[in-house]
Amino acid sequence: MTSLLTALLAVVVAAGAAIVIVETVHWITNRLGRRSQLLCDLAATAHHPFLATATVFAVQVAVRGFGGDFPGRAGVLHALVILVIATVAWLVGALLLVLEDLALAKWRVDVPDNMKARRLKTQVQMLRRVTVAAIVVLTLGVVLMTFPGVRALGASVLASAGIVSVIAALAAQSTLGNVFAGLQLAFSDAVRIDDVVVVEGEWGRIEDITLTYVAVQIWDDRRLILPTSYFTTKPFQNWTRTGSAVLGTAEIDVDWSAPVEPLRAELRKVCEGTELWDGRVCVLQVTDAVGGMIRLRALVSAHDAGALWDLRCLVRERLVAWVFEHRRDSLPRVRADVARLDRQGPGRSTSNGFAAEASDDARVFSGPGDGDERAAAFGGPDDTPAQRGYDEPGDIGAPARPIPATTSGDRP
Fold first, then answer.
1. Paired strand residues for 398
2. Which secondary-structure segment (H or E) carries 169?
């Protein structure tokens, strides 16, 4: 009982002393942090990890040195060792995060020319994730090595490390491929945080790059999640690869009678009257002239992709309004040439409007060649007045007699 009370007293004294020391250092750091951004970040980020590490380490030293022998001493010391390892890893991670934030603070991304800042932000964020993952893996490995059984197992595993590594590489081929692709993206400048890209037919901005996936924020606030290996194996458009300034077009169709020069003046007036235009490019050209219309293409420039979209819409709107208000006769129209057709039938009308006699090539049972022979073969012998259906040659008005059918068929 005396040993246990001594251990508890030693723990309380050690923990209290550690807390007093840490809080004193924290107060001094806060005071000095008013003049130094580094000390201010240290006071804000590393305070709790430092407090936990100092307290646990002081308790472990007190138990080892002044606790004496009490029931469960070995288990308590083992737990304290694990806690010291975990808190030290937490403190190291916090210190590394402070250094990374310090590096990012020197470069701002909310300025027009932020290509270097975005490159550094991408690399630092990737290094941060790699650092955190490495610290976690190493901490777990060190904690497991504190168990004697695991140390013995580790020796046997190391003997067959070659086979295990091959099996693990085959099993995690896709995951490892994405991890290496993420590292390649971070240091190859193919794509960076805040880059404007067109991928899978979607226009958006790179929101986040991790070791396994890339998040693209689409213009309508949707998120497109793609594996990092996508950007190393498939083509995509990067609108801000070398700079944020971009070009864009706005097209309208008008009639051939539309005046081009006044439209050019209107385009210049629109660009100069808005802050969306960056002052570089303002061009109007006729790019097509078919189908009874001409196509006008306005080429304009802006500081970034978002401003370009708004500028293109504004230019298109103003040009359409100008044509409608000032040159309504130049609106697109459909032309048709409808010719007056003679109603006397095909092949019967002439240039002077009178019917023409059909040519010999339009006859089958009359005319030169075998037309007369074909008429005789299909029409039978020459008709008599009675056969023509009349009683007498001069009896024109008499009713016709029916003609009996012949074996050669009805006459045409």
1. none
2. helix 161-171
Q: Give per-residue burial for 300-323: e unless 16+ CB within 10 Å, then b.
A: bbbbbbebbbebbebbbebbeebb
Q: Which residue has the tokens 């790059």?
A: 209
Residues 6+ apart with CB under 8 A from 213: 178, 225, 226, 227, 228
C-alpha dist (Å) from residue 206 to 51, 112, 118, 120: 38, 17, 11, 14
Half-sphere exposure of 251 (CA within 13 A, CB side): 8
Q: Which of 132-136, 210-214, 323-327, 370-374 has the lowest mean pLDDT?
A: 370-374
CB 411 within 8 A of CB 379: yes
> Which of 341, 337, 412, 332 lies closest to 374 in space, CA to CA?
412
SS3 per residue for 45-63: HCHHHHHHHHHHHHHHHHH
In contact, 358 and 371? CB cutoff 8 Å: no
- Quickly tell me which residue has 């708004």 as its tokens: 310
Is-contact 183 133, C-beta < 8 A?
A: no
Instruction: Please tell me the distance from the alpha carbon of residue 336 to that of residue 80, in angstroms, as a whole number.
Output: 94
Label residue 205 left, alpha or beta by phi (over 0 means left) and psi (-120 to 50 means alpha): beta
- Segment 39-78, tens digit of pLDDT: 777 778 888 888 888 888 888 888 777 766 667 777 888 8
Angle at 310 between CA 302 and CA 205, to 5 degrees: 75
Distance of CA 6 to the CA centre of its chain: 66
Q: Evaluate if residue 148 carries a pLDDT over 70.
A: yes
Give the pLDDT of residue 391.
44
Q: Strands across the sheet with 277-290, in order? A: 246-255, 293-302, 277-290
User: Tokens 């500081």, residue?
Assistant: 303
Residue whose pair of structure tokens reads 């991670």 in the numeric block:
93
